[in-house]
Design a protein that fits this description.
By secondary structure, this protein is mainly beta. It is built from 3 helices and 21 strands. The protein has one domain: Sandwich (Jelly Rolls). Strands 2, 7, 9, 10, 11, 12, 15, 19 and 20 form a 9-stranded antiparallel beta sheet that branches. Strands 1, 3, 6, 8, 16, 17, 18 and 21 form an 8-stranded antiparallel beta sheet that branches.
Length: about 290
């Protein structure tokens, strides 16, 4: 009965959620809790690490283009737009912050597309370096010895102007740095360019289309067990990938982050133009 009801709902039937839906973000309804990933700071914004200082707020977009006007989302006029600054290697990250009720398998599903800003009458298929997603997780204060766990996955589209087209994960972060002088705040930039590893068998060619203003949506799905803190499965469009070698970033638990359940989406440019990650909709569900 539950599955039949979901299949009868056009907004949900494109997803394959677990038993309980934690959040369903249809960006035709607004930002749905997705905001700018702001770095930690103390006393002055100048104490923020440079990686975070480059971030800007995600916006609602009609996917406007100079040649054909507004593209819109899958079945509405709007999508979430995550835009980088126009310099090679620039990144931008949007985040949704929740807390967890149960330690159980969860599923993250989204429909996304990536494009460079169409500032040239060229294909520009290698101008977007990467896009991806990450979780930021920590158990409860009664769970005993635990870690802060951060699964990262990106599609490395291009590097240095050449196609790469493969999925990668990250199991190491940068060192923590003290922020301010109160001994209360620290920060690390976990999306630094180092230490990405290839997902075994992770080569994939995604639909880019024939000019920079044509858009096709791709489906991504990532399952993660909040009790074992291990990846369970990953799918993009018609491909299911082996995640047995996948390892998240693991760092000591932090004193103010109990039951944290955060989700991020990010984009990175490979050229001196903005890269865009558009997100039509997101569904987060859990097996509880």
């Amino acid at each position: 009965m539950l599955r039949a009801l979901r299949l009868a709902d056009p907004a949900l039937s494109r997803f394959d959620p677990m038993r309980r839906i934690i959040s369903h973000d249809d960006f035709s309804r607004g930002h749905c809790g997705w905001s700018q990933l702001v770095g930690n700071y103390e006393d002055t914004l100048d104490t923020m690490l440079p990686g975070y200082a480059q971030h800007t707020s995600a916006m609602l977009s009609t996917l406007g283009h100079w040649d054909a006007g507004s593209h819109g989302g899958i079945d509405s006029s709007y999508a979430l737009k995550i835009a980088t600054r126009p310099r090679p290697g620039a990144q931008n990250v949007a985040i949704k912050r929740l807390t967890m009720r149960e330690r159980c398998p969860i599923r993250f599903e989204a429909y996304v597309t990536f494009k460079p800003e169409a500032t040239e009458l060229r294909l520009s298929e290698t101008d977007v370096r990467s896009f991806g997603f990450l979780f930021d997780l920590q158990g409860g204060d009664g769970d005993g010895p635990i870690d802060r766990v951060m699964p990262h996955m990106r599609f490395l589209n291009a590097m240095g102007g050449s196609h790469v087209q493969k999925w990668q994960f990250k199991s190491k972060s940068t060192d923590f740095k003290a922020i301010g002088d109160s001994n209360k705040t620290a920060s690390h930039y976990h999306l630094a360019p180092d230490d990405w590893q290839d997902l075994p068998g992770g080569e994939q060619r995604l639909c880019y289309n024939e000019i920079a203003t044509k858009v096709n949506w791709s489906y991504i799905r990532f399952d993660f067990d909040l009790r074992a803190m291990q990846a369970l499965s990953f799918r993009c469009n018609d491909r299911e990938f082996d995640v047995s070698a996948f390892e998240p970033i693991r760092i000591p638990a932090m004193k103010n982050l109990w039951c944290m359940l955060n989700f991020c989406l990010f984009a990175e440019t490979d050229a001196a133009k903005r890269a865009f990650l558009y997100v039509d909709s997101v569904c987060v569900s859990g097996d509880f």
